[in-house]
């Protein structure tokens, strides 16, 4: 009887019953918590340092353990959900995330907090791809799914941007553990709601789950993200601790890809990348996050160190970016139907490049209207592109591999964020360091120390005092603003390259209500696997009519 009831609920969700919007609400709340937790700790680092007294290495792992572990395990848990049930993986992730939040809130040693952050990463890796793949199964109609993805991507943007604001408020009024404690009541609410409302779904996949392949993917992504993060914080690219993880990660991912091509029942069907829409969508996600995270990091430094704003004021200044992203997500479905994925993604890139060029007018003095306009255009443009990319990627992927496709999208998200910090941060540092030669009255050692970062320059200037300290401080501000302009120009060039790449996306959005007649057979690219075009077209057919069907119940 229980099995029959569960099957009826699953079929009702798949057929587009009214409960699908309640399911979307549950998925968005869980995603919001995961997204907030990725950034909420940033403003709490000084308080954590004062209370727990971690070493430099321990502090680095306190901050980085969550995103590193989460990124490494996305493919593992995304593909596991395709096998054992996405709802099951999602509910287990809720439980782990809630327990880890309690452990982190009351951690009294650095090691305990690092362990809690690792567990949070495990829970986040189970939640993130599962939310997107469950969304794929409960919204079989592409038009409704586009609306749902718009809400989903807007919530992700809200969570990432809300983290610093919420963290700043909590730190000012409570203790640093409160940034984790807020997760517990919400997890206690959505865990029973999820168990009651979420439909179970899994891919109709045969053969065993490729455990070795999953571990290879986890190790490869971990090595790549770790190496990229070290580059982003200024480590020597030839340092063995940086280059070895990068090389090992790249090698593992190459072996993983070759293994998936050989297997009769692969963990991830890598032939999905032969479809131009899928591979281009993944590339667009990487470029979007590269621009967004790299520019946000530099903007935060500019607002705090050049304009002298507090962490809470800085977070509030970034809110227009969040509101614009929400607007882009809310209107994304309509825009996609009107102009299609190609023009939507390309137009979003061009709009973002224009916003970045507008921000080159920033100087050493506060121009709030200019910053607000730039952040609004930046948020709307990037979210527009992200929406088109996620929707195209998920619609092109076979239903059986929805969890794996969602994991690829989320991994691209994490890699793009790390690459943004590494690439744009390196450009910024290189441009900034050129302005400290031959300062009269400033010792050479002090100038060299100041060339590392604006924050360090201000500390050195405070120690020097007098005319030399003031000269060093003004030189550092000038160098930072000049470096900011160079970085913005590089970012604009990358965004315009993304606009050109978006030309590979489909011109129009096919309607699934008449998928067999409304969607033309895709052109097969040279060297593309002959079944890929058919596979990507079949992925947009509802489960009741296409080969990518969901299994309603499996004993």
UniProtKB/TrEMBL annotation:
The keyword Membrane applies. One of its GO terms (molecular function) is transmembrane transporter activity. It is a multi-pass membrane protein. The chain crosses the membrane at residues 21-47, 59-77, 89-107, 113-135, 147-167, 173-195, 207-228, 240-257, 278-303, 315-336, 343-363, 369-390, 483-503. Residues 23-510 form the Major facilitator superfamily (MFS) profile domain. GO terms for cellular component: plasma membrane. Gene3D superfamilies: MFS general substrate transporter like domains, Multidrug resistance protein D. Its main location: membrane. The keyword Transmembrane applies. The lineage of its organism: Bacteria, Bacillati, Actinomycetota, Actinomycetes, Kitasatosporales. Residues 513-555 are annotated as: Disordered. It comes from the Bacteria. InterPro entries: MFS, MFS_dom, MFS_trans_sf. It is found in: Cell membrane. Keywords: Antibiotic resistance, Cell membrane, Membrane, Transmembrane, Transmembrane helix, Transport. It holds the Pfam family MFS_1. This is MFS transporter. GO terms for biological process: response to antibiotic.
């Amino acid at each position: 009887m229980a099995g029959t009831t569960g099957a009826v609920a699953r079929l009702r969700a798949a057929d587009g019953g009214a409960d699908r919007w309640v399911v979307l609400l549950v998925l968005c709340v869980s995603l919001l918590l995961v997204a907030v937790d990725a950034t909420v700790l940033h403003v709490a680092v000084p308080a954590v340092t004062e209370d727990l007294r971690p070493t430099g290495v321990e502090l680095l792992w306190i901050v980085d353990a969550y995103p590193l572990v989460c990124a490494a395990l996305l493919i593992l848990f995304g593909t596991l959900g395709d096998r054992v049930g996405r709802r099951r993986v999602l509910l287990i992730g809720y439980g782990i995330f809630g327990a880890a939040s309690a452990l982190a809130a009351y951690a009294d040693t650095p090691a305990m907090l690092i362990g809690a952050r690792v567990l949070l990463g495990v829970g986040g890796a189970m939640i993130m791809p599962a939310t997107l793949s469950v969304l794929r199964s409960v919204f079989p109609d592409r038009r409704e799914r586009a609306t749902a993805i718009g809400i989903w991507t807007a919530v992700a943007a809200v969570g990432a941007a809300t983290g610093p604001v919420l963290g700043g408020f909590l730190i000012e009024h409570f203790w640093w553990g409160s940034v984790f404690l807020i997760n517990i009541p919400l997890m206690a609410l959505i865990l029973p709601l999820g168990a009651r409302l979420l439909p179970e779904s899994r891919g109709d996949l045969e053969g065993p789950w490729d455990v070795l392949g999953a571990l290879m993917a986890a190790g490869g992504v971990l090595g790549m993200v770790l190496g990229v993060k070290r580059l982003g914080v200024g480590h020597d690219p030839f340092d063995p601790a940086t280059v070895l993880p990068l090389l090992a990660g790249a090698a593992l991912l190459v072996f993983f890809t070759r293994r998936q091509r050989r297997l009769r029942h692969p963990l991830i069907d890598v032939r999905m990348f032969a479809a131009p829409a899928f591979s281009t969508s993944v590339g667009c996600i990487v470029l979007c996050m590269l621009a967004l995270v790299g520019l946000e990091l530099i903007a935060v430094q500019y607002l705090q160190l050049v304009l002298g704003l507090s962490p809470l004021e800085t977070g509030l200044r970034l809110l227009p970016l969040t509101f614009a992203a929400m607007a882009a997500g809310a209107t994304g479905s309509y825009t996609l139907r009107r102009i299609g994925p190609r023009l939507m993604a390309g137009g979003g890139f061009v709009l973002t490049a224009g916003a970045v060029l507008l921000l080159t007018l920033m100087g050493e003095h506060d121009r709030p209207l200019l910053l607000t306009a730039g952040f609004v255009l930046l948020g709307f443009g990037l979210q527009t592109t992200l929406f088109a990319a996620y929707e195209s990627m998920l619609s092109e992927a076979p239903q059986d591999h929805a969890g794996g496709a969602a994991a690829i999208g989320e991994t691209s998200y994490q890699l793009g964020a790390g690459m943004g910090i590494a690439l744009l941060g390196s450009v910024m540092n290189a441009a900034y360091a050129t302005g400290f030669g031959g300062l009269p009255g400033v010792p050479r050692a002090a100038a060299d120390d100041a060339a590392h970062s604006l924050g360090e320059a201000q500390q050195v200037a405070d120690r020097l005092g007098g005319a030399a300290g003031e000269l060093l401080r003004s030189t550092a501000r000038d160098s930072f603003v000049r470096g900011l302009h160079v970085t913005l120009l590089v970012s604009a060039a990358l965004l315009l390259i993304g606009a050109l790449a978006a030309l590979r996306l489909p011109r129009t959005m096919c309607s699934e209500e008449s998928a067999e007649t409304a969607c033309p057979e895709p052109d097969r690219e040279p060297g593309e696997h002959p079944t890929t075009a058919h596979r990507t077209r079949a992925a947009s057919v509802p489960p009741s009519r296409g080969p990518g069907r969901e299994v309603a119940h499996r004993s």
